[in-house]
Hints:
By secondary structure, the protein is α+β, with helices and mostly antiparallel strands.
Amino acid sequence: MRYFxxxxxxxxxxxFGQPENGTPSQQMxxxxxxxxxxxxxxxxxxxxxxxQIKFTxxxxxxxxxxxxxxxxxxxxxxxxxxxxxxxxxxxxxRVNSDPATDTGDSHAPAPLYFTTAGxxxxxxxxxxxxxxxxxxxxxxxxxxxRAPEQGGVKLSEAELYALDSSASAPMVIDIPAAPGVxxxxxxxxxxxxxxxxxxxxxxxxxxxxxxxxxxWYRTCGxxxxxxxxxMAKELRDKSIPCDVLGLEPGWQSxxxxxxFSWSPERFPQPDRTVAxxxxxxxxxxxxxxxFIHPTSPIYRDLVPYSGDFKVWNGAxxxxxxxxxxxCFASYHARTFTSRGIxxxxxxxxxxxxxxxxxxxxxxxxQFPSGQDGETMHSMLGMLYMETIGRACRKSxxxxxxxxxxxxxxxxxxxxxxxxxxxxxxxxxxxxTTCGFSGMLWTPELRHAVSPEDYLRRLxxxxxxxxxxxNIWSMPHPPWRQLRRELNSAGEFYPEEEQLRLEKATRDILxxxxxxxxxxxxxxxxxxxxxxPPFRALTMDAPDDPxxxxxxxxxxxxxxxxxxxxxxxMTELTVxxxxxxxxxxHTGEKYTGEVTLRPAPEELPILVKGSAVVPxxxxxxxxxxxxxxxxxLKCFGDAPRPARxxxxxxxxxxxxxxxxxxxxxxxxxxxxxxxxARYEVLP
Length: 682
């Protein structure tokens, strides 16, 4: 008889066989679990006996089988752009920047799933494991022959391919090469409780600095210092909110692979340029790869700690090794973070099957630590985030960055996933799928085919982890011209249309800034209590079958429901979780479901129950420790106070002091804890 060992409140662990080296828990500098917060969650027993788990080893690797019950739906497994619910499907968790079909390929797979039965399972492997999510029932040689089915042979595709709900099919997990594995089970009793346990188990969610939750603008990749400064000035002159200005590949002397040194032609005086941007209130984000060009100052130091294949003629450092990680972190601290750079973007770290260039290293690569290319692909983004996080801490910078790859143990990392893809429905779906794995995803703007498409894409980011205009391919702002070739040629829309799009852009970005105190509190809840700030509706209401496939709307914080529209949509009927819901814009009350018909410039937002929603007076950018001026919108009778968080918003002091929570009430009164950071306007 096997028994689960409860080694943390509500978290059970079991070891099968002999786990290999290089698992996520071994490769990462895993953060200490938030034990006290875990203990505050409701008690729950494991949903099945450990003896029901089957484990076998073969030349192929190892296999786990876990029981599933009828009606149990499966979610998670990392970032998924193709679908939200995995029940009955096969998922191979393979790192791929171009997921072509709904098979499990992803920028950020994670061997972690949750079910509507109220528990989650983490399989501690960096292998490209396959999860057969209840679609394959076991052969029973002693099973009696069934009577002929009524109605004769099924001929339609729907009938032929339908999942047999009467069959008892387990979750089957196929882990290649590994002779064993550790399994962690997170109990509920509710689905959201199980997700919270996982987040707290990893150390709690990321708490970005307030400026990181503001608006981001990535400048043209070919821009020089003068052009970057001109864009920065234009944004300020036009009062377009922007906190972070991102520099794309052209800032470096070599970019594919990377020199990690400024281009002397485009940025001859980088310290002066960065200081000028900082003085205008911008935080600067630098684009880079994790592939080291031979001209880089750290190339020779890192070659002995690198894999046996190059990428874009650059070395791939093995950041599992302390000397390599320390070299990379120290160089970034010395050269960048101590000189005004606040964050970084790691691009193209996610492998690809469909691009002819040497996008990344082969899975058969070997690294000095003993890792092969497969496990290194899975963990590359995580290792980078951990290393860059240390570089920022060396300069006392609380960072918020961008990355193209993540895996298990991602919640504490202050990085947001993004993509080179374009499909807006998939970008929206990514927000709903990421919360199950403790990941953050931005439906960034990097492409739009029409002004309507442009505005709808902007709206989708307002209540998301990152408000990012990625204008890397165009030298002029998108409100002047959306078509790349015309923008580059300086052929703009008529002035009236430019002004219309500019105002619409400003209005949408200002709406993001109005929600910033609310979003910051949602991230503090993520940090201290494990609740994902953005999550699918079914996570909060798993017993409601109407919500299980809603991948186009999500909860933001404790009381807002975002329903971003796409270009061409004129109306949408949305099933609502139980209770009263109010239209954020009109105050109209709904229950059960609502049919939305928003104006093109309007993002549909619903408010849960009677509630206070605090809105900040918009500013062009956040300054450290600034005092927010709030206006309150109240919904329903006896609106519930809003809970806000009031640390300084930029330092690491929150890690060593009691959390500063307080309430703002419908009558405009504030808890004393909030007085230094918030003021309610009449």
